[in-house]
Each structure stands twice: as structure tokens, then as C-alpha cells.
Amino acid sequence: MADEVSRETPAKVVGVRRLKEAMAKPASTRIFTVANQKGGVGKTTTTVNIAAAMAMGGLRVLVIDLDPQGNASTALGVEHRDSAGVYEVLMGNTSMSEVVKKVAGFPALDCVSSNTSLANAEINLVSMVARELQLKAAIDEVSANYDYIFIDCPPSLGLLTINAFAASKELLIPIQTEYYALEGLSQLLETYSVVKKRLNPNLNLSTIVLTMFDSRTRLSNDVAANVRSHFPNELIDIPIPRAVRVSEAPSYNQTVMTYDPLSPGAIAYMQVAREIAERGKPKDVVFDSNVVSINYKGGIA
Ligand SMILES: Nc1ncnc2c1ncn2[C@@H]1O[C@H](COP(=O)(O)OP(=O)(O)O)[C@@H](O)[C@H]1O
Ligand SMILES: [Mg+2]
Predict the structure, then answer these.
(1) 133: domain CATH number?
(2) Residue 246 domain-assigned?
């Protein structure tokens, strides 16, 4: 702790940050919903820090703040209270490209902010035609400009979260390593499978991130083991530690990636971001001699 406190706290993000080693680009835009209907599990923290880490790794990233509380916008230092954002887009009053804002201090990190009007969206969307697909239509307009798009959801499974599911290719679930961690997960998975069946067959639960991990406690380790056994392929096996600097960063309108890039939380988020990028890089085409020879024999038979 002592050295954490002694490190200088930057009041403002200055300059552009880039890592020496770039992160892998995906073959096409990867669009993630970050969801868990429990509040306070680390959705917003995970969204903004992975997005910031990827932007530092040379990727073009967009964060869409779909929570009326606007925590993601705050953490990225984007003015949101008095300006048009995702609500106005969902209502069809403006286009996505009109409300995209640049995030200071990053080469290619953008944000579509939320504002308090978004709290009315759940009600106002109900009467709209194709109400579940408003966000998808809006994202389609800008998605080619990005390698990664992350949608930070509110803590509910209402129409906003459904819009995110319908607009995404992948689902990222942050799981807090605490006692009730897996409670409610079945409801989330149920919603996911209904959306997949009825609205968006391309949606894939690809990624699970463990948050607020405390390696000293048996509970954290038990939860991690449990998640690992249920989701061996989806789990990113680099837990985000519970760390003071991670929770302090938003009050300086920053992600921990700029607030204290050498702190344990920042390092963990950097590793998780790199792992997600690695998993998403285009696979090399492998020449499979068995398949070719089977086809060949089939051809002359
Ligand atoms: N790794 C962490 N270490 C310490 N505090 C954290 C960590 N991750 C999140 N927090 C804090 O926990 C609270 C909830 O996190 P948040 O990302 O806002 O959750 P959600 O978006 O799911 O509601 C916030 O105050 C945040 O700063
Ligand atoms: Mg949040």
C-alpha cells in the first residue's frame, strides 16, 4: 500500500498513450455486451479499463454507455449530463456518428455517453416498432470504424440490455468473486438463450472475467474454481484483484490505465485485454492434408 500512495496522482490525462507491443486486430469488428443484472459487480470498471487498455494497444475502440447513471462516461472523462447521447439515438432523434465523442489522452478511444433521459428509454421504447433493434441499427452505421465496441449495460435485464444483446456478437459477463456471485446467473443465461433463439442467433457468450478477486480468501478461490469448472473456455483465467487504485480512478475522471498504469489492477486489466484480443485474432489457414486427401479420393471414386 505504501508505494501505492507515494506514487504521484495525475490530476488530468495528458498526451497520448500507446504500448510498445500492439494488440492483435480482429478480422472484423467484435461487438461485446458487458452485462450482469447484479449491480456493483464490475461491469463498468471492466468495460472502461479493457477498452482503454485496447486503445493503448493500438486498437480502435468504442464504448457505448447504456446505463442511465453514466458511470462509464464519467470514468472516461466524457461530458455527458447536458449533451445528446445514446438516448437520443435510440429515440431516432439523431444518428450515432453525431454523438460519438473522443476520449482525451487516447489515440483511438471513443465514447457514446448516456444522460439521465436514458432512464426513460425503457418506457419510451415499448411503443416503438422493432424496439429491440434500435441500438443494432444505430451501431451498424459506425461499426466499420472500430476493432472493438463495448456496450456497458445497466443492472437489469430490461429493454436496454435486450437492445445490447441484439446488437452484439459476443457477451462478456463480469463475475464478482463473492458469496452470491453465481446467484442470478441462471436468469442472465436464460435471457441470453431466449435472445439467441428469437432475436440474434449470432450472439455468443464468449468471455467471463472475474472481478474484485482476493487471492488470500478461500471464498474468492472457491468462486473462481466453480466458474472455471462451468465455463472452462469462456473464463479469462486472469482475475482482476480488488485494488484501491481501480476504485479511485473514476473520481479523477480516469481509467486506472492512466491513473496508475503500474498498479496491480491496471496490470491485470491490461493482461485481460491482451488475452481477449489474442483470442479474437484471425486464425491462420492451416493446410490440412487429411481433409484434402479425403476430398481427392472422393473426387475420383
Ligand atoms: N477490482 C476492483 N477493486 C476495487 N474496487 C473495484 C474493483 N472493480 C470495481 N470496483 C468498485 O466497485 C464498485 C462497483 O463497480 P462497477 O464497475 O461500477 O460495477 P457495475 O457497473 O457492475 O455496477 C465501484 O465503486 C468500483 O469502483
Ligand atoms: Mg455500471
Answers:
(1) 3.40.50.300
(2) yes
Domain extent at residue 153: 27-282
Q: Angle, to 10 degrees, between the axis of helix 159-167 and the axis of helix 185-198?
A: 60
Cβ 54 vs Cβ 174: under 8 Å: no
Label residue 166 exposed, middle or buried (CB < 10 Å: 0-12, 13-18, 19+).
buried
- Ligand 1: which atom is nearest the Cα of residue 46? 17
Residue 169 domain-assigned (yes or no) = yes
Protein residue with least CA distance to atom 25, ligand 1: 247
pTM above 0.70, yes or no: yes
Q: Is 193 in the pocket of ligand 1 (CB under 6 A)?
A: no
pLDDT at 180: 82
Number of domains within the chain: 1
Is 156 part of any domain?
yes
* Per-residue pLDDT reduced to its tens digit, 191-220: 999 999 999 999 999 999 999 999 999 999
Ligand of minimum distance to the alpha carbon of 67: 2
3-state DSSP assignment of residue 204 = strand
Closest ligand 1 atom, residue 240 Cα? 1
Backbone dihedral region for residue 177 (phi beyond 0: left; psi -120 to 50: alpha; all else: beta): beta
φ/ψ bin of 15: left (φ > 0), alpha (ψ from -120 to 50), beta (otherwise):
left
- Angle made by CA atoms 210, 121, 193, in degrees to the nearest 5: 45
- Would you say residue 65 lies in a domain? yes
Verify whether ligand 1 is closer than 6 Å to residue 45 (CB atom): yes
